[in-house]
Amino acid sequence: MNAGKKQRQGLLERLQTDGRLISALAPVSALLLSVSMLLMGNGLQGTLVPVRGNLESFLPFELGLLGAAYFIGFTLGCLHGPLLVRRAGHIRTYLAMTSVASAVAVLHPVFIDAIVWSVQRAVTGYCFAVLYIVIESWLNERADNEMRGTVFSVYTIINLTVITAGQMMLGLADPTSFALFALSSVLVSVAALPVAFTVAVSPAAVEFVRPHLGKLYRISPVGVAGCLAVGLANGSFWALGPVFAQNLGLNTAGIGFFMSAVVLGGAISQWPLGRLSDRMDRRIVIIIAGLVALAAAIALMLIPENDRMSMIIAGAVFGAGAFPIYPLSVAHANDYADRSEFVAVSSGLLLVFGIGAAAGPLLASVVREVALVPTLFFFTAAVHAALIVYVVWRMTQRAAPADEERIEFADAAIAAQTVTPFDPLADDIVTEETSAGTPEQPS
């Protein structure tokens, strides 16, 4: 009798949870459908552009410039996007940015020039930063405090899944043809339709904070160093990883598998490492993740070119170590911050990441031209080694925060993966606005 009652109670609780999830997702279902197509197109384009550039005999520095330009544009979009959204509104801004991003995608095979492509990649980065601002501020407003983590978890799953699917599309056609650029453009264009026809109410004006990097470093030197290292290493990987796989003889499908393996490795390891960091000094977990990335980078330099399976496995291990360092660093920094500073900390760390991601591809390509050998994973290995040494030294200078001062990794991870970070532990978001209602430009 008691067992049956417990089963009925458990079923009722699951139904209530499912009902709350459906209620939370229903107002943003059109937006999530749009996100799926949008990020699939961007995932395809992000892998296609360096592969096509390599086929067009772009110099290593020019290939690095393509990656740097995207993150420069992305960082500028993060800084300027809130002002743009306030002036035009969420829906009109979203439609405008998808229109520009779609047009830029289809122009790549029309004007094949490294400088022109770099400008186009900067525009693409800007557009997607603004699109992320619209998407994530919309999700944040529509999700109540109880379901916000679940909604953003669904969003993250969609994000990783469709980017992987987009990378796998590289094998659908010849990269030298017009077809893949056209497909990327179509996906971005069609992504505007669910938002254009939605009957949901547009969110309120975007709120944002003013990050202060000097103060941020004083709050958490390891947090700043970790996000800078992730920008340097992962930015160079996104820009040059497809070229690395291509130069080792992988076909277009193999390149897609390799890039997808890295993304999936990072997705799988993030939460186990995050949960581990809730139970011990997060800096130790950052060191562990750095050692995993370092070992995988060395392995990728040593694996024979004809051992494709080992290379894909090593790529997954690299992602498992390299990708979680960013949310771990954000969580560690927030452990030392006041509740009122959480949004500013996450926003500032995103800016640090953007600076590193813009510099990383250029530095990696310069090292390659100087050394005259492929050095992508030599560069990432050096970055992770430097981070490990710095974190070990910092552990001798500062004690870990007390348990009661630490936040849950899940809360920090939600803030870490958003372009417009919010405080997951408080109802009020600290913002800065002018008296006229127009936001000040972040410094």
Protein architecture, described:
It is a single chain. This protein folds into 2 domains: 21-198, Growth Hormone, Chain: A; 207-434, Up-down Bundle (Growth Hormone, Chain: A). Residues 10-16 and 420-443 have low confidence and may be disordered. Helix 2 packs antiparallel against helix 3, helix 2 runs parallel beside helix 6 (148-168) and helix 3 runs parallel beside helix 5. It has helices at 2-25, 29-55, 60-88, 90-107, 114-142, 148-168, 179-190, 192-196, 213-219, 221-247, 252-277, 282-302, 308-322, 325-335, 342-371, 376-395, 409-416. Helices cover 74% and strands 0% of the residues. The chain contains 17 helices and no strands. It is mostly helical and 443 residues long.
Q: List the uncertain runs.
A: 10-16, 420-443
Q: What separation lies between the terminal Cα atoms?
A: 64 Å
Outline type: globular
Work out the number of β strands.
Answer: 0
CATH topology of the largest domain: Growth Hormone, Chain: A
Largest sheet: none
- The count of domains is 2
- pLDDT averaged over residues: 79
What's the CATH first level of the largest domain? Mainly Alpha
The share of residues in helices is over 70%
Order of helices and strands: HHHHHHHHHHHHHHHHH
Structural class: mainly alpha
Specify Rg, calculated over alpha carbons: 22 Å
Beta-strand percentage?
under 5%
Structure in a nutshell:
The chain folds into 2 domains: 21-198, Up-down Bundle (Growth Hormone, Chain: A), CATH 1.20.1250; 207-434, MFS general substrate transporter like domains (Growth Hormone, Chain: A). It is 74% helix and 0% strand. It is mainly α and 443 residues long.
